[in-house]
Design brief:
By secondary structure, the protein is an alpha/beta fold. Helices cover about 30% and strands about 25% of the residues. It is elongated and about 75 Å long. It binds pyridoxal-5'-phosphate. Pyridoxal-5'-phosphate binds next to helix 10.
Length: about 375
């Protein structure tokens, strides 16, 4: 938690559940990532946290944006971003949304299939397009399935077709999975993209851009590689596979820019046991999976919790949200421990919750209102 967030929570004691975001930290993360990958152009993955104060700060820093929907495109433009600095990066778009983005000035679009490419050719003629390919997601704590991307051979054929359809065959993208704790998938993906570049050059299509997607990890409960280490590995792979003929490099960080800028503040609703001799207490919070902590699905993302009793005797707990759905259990198998003194009414802080929380909150499940957001 940043000092600014700690001070704000101590001084204002806002109603829970809420998220407090230190927008200065987002700026620091942007600068640090840019320094770690100086050759890369940063397209912030808006879906991680689309709040206007964040988009406005990043616009001021010269960031570009990766939007997943026409609505996100509009949020970027409303925050002051130039439309030509917005990439419409979802490979699944309605044709009328492509047309709306094109009319607003967006000229960069992703695809991973022929029907999508043909939609772009009709609705956004002449635009720059890039094809997303499958890559290894090994090492990602939030991996992506085969939902996105296509095989490299198909990408080659489609990039040739892109040119024939009057589009600008711009480059190749991939995504190594979110919260990627290893640099190896980036390196093997860059090698794979280099082969696509070589084969297409032989076919007369000169690609210019490689989009590394997101995945850059954040420290939750366990250590992750530093971004400088990942940056060095990525640049090493580009030197190895592209030599002096470096392409334009695009990165789409989401989590890395915003996660550790945010803290969720929640109140303990109940601490109980399921049997007289049961050693495990159930701790029910006023936020759960439906309140925005969706990435606790499968206990994939394990957040660090701070309580007013830290440092005193603790014991094993299962941690759950307040709704009447058993899916709303956050951690049962991850060996969480919390102080024995913990009791209802205590406030708990959940650290590094600035990414993928606010937008995942359900609107009114069980009548609970979504968490409040404070940008400071
Ligand atoms: C979600 C997403 C990102 C951001 O991923 P992070 O792991 O949060 O950095 C980047 N690019 C695409 C295409 C995405 O879908």
């Amino acid at each position: 938690m940043t000092q600014k967030v700690a001070r704000y929570l101590a001084e204002t004691s806002p109603a829970t559940p809420c998220l407090v975001m230190d927008v200065d930290r987002v700026e620091q993360n942007f600068q640090r990532l840019q320094a770690a990958l100086p050759n890369a152009r940063i397209y912030y993955a808006v879906k991680a946290n689309p709040a206007a104060p964040i988009l406005e700060r990043l616009t001021g820093l010269g960031s570009f944006f990766d939007a997943a929907s026409w609505q996100e495109v509009q949020m970027c433009i409303a925050a002051g971003a130039a439309a030509e600095h917005v990439s419409y990066g979802n490979t699944i778009k309605k044709e009328r949304d492509i047309a709306a983005a094109y009319a607003a000035g967006v000229r960069m679009f992703a695809f991973d299939s022929e029907p999508e490419l043909r939609k772009i050719a009709r609705a956004a003629p002449g635009s720059r397009v890039y094809c997303r390919i499958f890559v290894e997601n090994e090492g990602a704590e939030w991996p992506l399935s085969k939902k996105f991307g296509c095989e490299a051979d198909m990408a080659k054929r489609l990039m040739v077709l892109a040119g024939e359809l009057g589009l600008d065959a711009y480059g190749i993208s991939f995504h190594v999975g979110s919260q990627q704790t290893s640099s190896a998938p980036y390196r093997s993906a860059i090698a794979k993209v280099a082969m696509v570049f070589t084969d297409l050059a032989a076919a007369g299509v000169k690609l210019r851009m490689v989009n590394l997607g997101g995945g850059y990890p954040v420290r939750y409960k366990s250590e992750v590689p530093e971004i400088e280490e990942i940056g060095a590995a990525v640049m090493g792979a580009f030197a190895q596979h592209f030599g002096n003929d470096l392409p334009e490099i695009v990165i789409e960080p989401g989590r890395f820019l915003v996660a550790d800028a945010g803290t969720v503040c929640t109140e303990v609703v109940l601490v109980s046991r399921k049997g007289e001799a049961d050693p495990v207490r159930w701790v029910y919070l006023d936020i759960g999976r439906f309140g925005g902590l969706a990435e606790t699905e499968g206990e994939a993302i394990r957040y660090t919790l701070r309580t007013p009793h830290d440092g005193t005797a603790d014991g094993p707990v299962t941690i759950a949200g307040p709704t009447c759905d058993s899916v709303d259990t956050l951690y049962e198998k991850s060996n969480y421990r919390l102080p024995m003194a913990l009791t209802d009414g205590d406030r708990i802080e959940i650290l590094s919750t600035g990414a993928y929380v606010t937008t995942y909150a359900s609107q009114k499940f069980n009548g609970f209102t979504p968490l409040e957001e404070h940008y400071i």
